[in-house]
């Protein structure tokens, strides 16, 4: 697997995902600012250049470690290119819709809302909150799918 072309392809793949992630974050902040402005204490603050550089350096180290571990057989190399495009295309529009709901919950400090069909019985209190103001916390398939997509982005 130490083919330089494959490694270059992997790096290009990872960097392109980073660019798409940054574009998503920038656009979503702008849309939310117009449609459902955050409360002053929740308004995003720009990152300092040195923080951006640290993030970039950390990502490069992660990409390099992933590559090296796949080469050593710690896990299959195919995982390096594993991105479920079908799921992204399917759930991305829903992520935008849910983002507006999340913003409203966050602005109104509503941290414990779940759909009626979710059985919350038996869960410790820690789980009975909307982590990151996410719809249904982590307790529904809907929420889990959107969380997976959001984590990939």
Primary descriptors:
single chain; 153 residues; mainly alpha; globular; transferase; UbiE/COQ5 methyltransferase; methyltransferase activity; methyltransferase
Describe the model:
This is UbiE/COQ5 methyltransferase. One of its GO terms (biological process) is methylation. Keywords: Methyltransferase, Transferase. With 153 residues, the chain is an all-alpha fold. It has helices at residues 4-35, 49-71, 85-107, 141-152. The protein has 2 domains: 1-82, no CATH class; 84-153, no CATH class. α3 (85-107) packs across α4. The relative contact order is 0.11. The mean pLDDT is 88.
How is the secondary structure organized here?
Layout: H1 4-35, H2 49-71, H3 85-107, H4 141-152
Largest sheet entry: none
- Give the domain tally: 2
Report the mean per-residue pLDDT as an integer: 88
- Strand element count: 0
User: What percent strand?
Assistant: under 5%
Count of discrete alpha- or pi-helical segments spanning 4 or more residues: 4
- Rg over CA atoms, rounded to whole Å, is 19 Å
Query: What ranges have pLDDT less than 50 throughout 5 or more consecutive residues?
Result: none
Helix content: 55-70%
Structural class: mainly alpha
Distance between the termini: 27 Å
Order of helices and strands: HHHH
Shape: globular
């Amino acid at each position: 697997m130490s083919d330089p072309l494959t490694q270059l392809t992997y790096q290009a793949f990872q960097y392109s995902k980073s660019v798409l992630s940054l574009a998503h974050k920038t656009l979503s902040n702008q849309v939310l600012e117009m449609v459902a402005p955050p409360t002053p204490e929740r308004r995003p603050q720009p990152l300092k250049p040195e923080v951006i550089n640290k993030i970039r350096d950390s990502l490069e180290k992660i990409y390099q470690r992933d590559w090296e571990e796949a080469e050593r057989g710690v896990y299959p190399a195919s995982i390096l290119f594993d991105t479920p495009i079908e799921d992204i295309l399917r759930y991305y529009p829903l992520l935008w819709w849910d983002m507006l709901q999340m913003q409203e919950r966050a602005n109104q400090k509503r941290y414990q809302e779940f759909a009626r069909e979710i059985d919350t019985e038996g869960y410790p209190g820690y789980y009975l909150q909307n982590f990151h103001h996410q719809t249904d916390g982590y307790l529904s398939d809907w929420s889990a799918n959107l969380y997976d997509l959001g984590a990939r982005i």
